[in-house]
Protein: Cytochrome c-type biogenesis protein CcmE
Amino acid sequence: MNPRRKSRLYLAIVVLIGIGLTTTLVLYALRANIDLFYTPGEILQGKGERHEKPEIGQRLRIGGMVMPGSVKRDEKTLEMSFKVYDARGVVTVTYTGILPDLFREGQGVVAQGVFAENNTINAKEVLAKHDEKYTPPEVKEAMKENHIRPAEAYNSAVGEGNAS
Structure:
């Protein structure tokens, strides 16, 4: 092999290794910033065909309906907790801060935070919508899969004893 071809071959190999390494590093960096969306049922029972559950400390978003009667506020601080439900389960969300004015029991909510022990989400941000017909799109899709509307999902969650 002549020296010119040899140097081109080395250059091509170095470029391919560089592209592969760069791609790997970018994907690894982005992985830490991705917040996967879960419904309460997916947190409790797993997501997808492999039934993957979030790991403790994982950042995620959870969407569902705020369970009536579940909102508990600390009188002295801005700490609060509430339960979010869908057709397949109920999960507790804790939040410190001022909730949106549109936050109501029985309404749709999306909380972004970190998964903690005992199937609890420590939320850093809470988004809410006031229209009683509103359901977050991901939750609406999840409930459509289960063929259960929000009120029926609440009744089934309370009936199964998941509301505690």
User: Anything to note?
Assistant: The beta strands are 36-38, 59-66, 72-73, 79-86, 89-96, 108-116, 120-128. DSSP finds four helices and seven strands in the chain. The first helix runs from residue 3 to 31. The longest strand covers residues 108-116.
